[in-house]
């Protein structure tokens, strides 16, 4: 088996109670160091690199909020490219996780959180979803990040790019994208989210033809009714924001639950193999 395939297999066996087998890094010298991009969620701190079975000196850990890559030339991509060129990273794994708080935060709540920090809405970019890379699915977010990496001119075509999901409670790893299966195939360019050029927009307006103001028809709605409707919608939006904030913030408990056990880490043994620690 190849490196990531063996890592996932060993991870599943460790969770099933198998502590007798492990990885010998010498067998995968051509695939190390491994570069991993994960979220900044502190719940992941106790897992890496142990659940991968990779020695710390062969593990290059990149992190950002939501393990998001916004484009093939983003700042995260620059760090990843330097990890390959300078640190000689041989394989890349984008590792998302379950119960991601970035995914669970609606834009309305995000604006309120910034407001609490003294950052007004006017100081933030117009399109917060695009700027922060907010996503609706952890798996889709991982797949999109993998696509951006594979489409990047900064990453060599011989480097496998994998996508994984980690269970934030147990540390179980699952495939999202097997980079070995798509290695060598041309990456499909992602559609660019660009606004139309001003000249094109003016051409489209001109194509509408001439119109006469007297022929325009307006809805028969009184201004007072519009104002009342706007006030109602604003009030409903505020209630939605408050509900979202309450739902997202943890409820204090006098007896916080004990964290679930994590799989035994892979450690070097005297026989020279990387076996599971008792």
Question: What do you see in this structure?
Answer:
The two termini are 25 Å apart. The relative contact order is 0.17. The protein is globular. Residues 192-211 and 268-278 have low confidence and may be disordered. The chain has a five-stranded mixed sheet, sandwiched between helices. The chain has a two-stranded antiparallel ribbon with strand order 6-7. It has helices at 3-15, 75-85, 101-104, 107-116, 128-132, 138-151, 179-182, 198-206, 223-248; strands at 34-39, 59-64, 91-97, 161-166, 173-177, 266-268, 274-276. It is α/β, with parallel strands linked by helices and 278 residues long. It has one domain (3-194, 260-276): Beta-carbonic Anhydrase, Chain A (3-Layer(aba) Sandwich).
Summary, kept brief:
With 278 residues, this protein is α/β, with parallel strands linked by helices. The chain has helices spanning 3-15, 75-85, 101-104, 107-116, 128-132, 138-151, 179-182, 198-206, 223-248; strands at residues 34-39, 59-64, 91-97, 161-166, 173-177, 266-268, 274-276. It contains nine helices and seven strands.
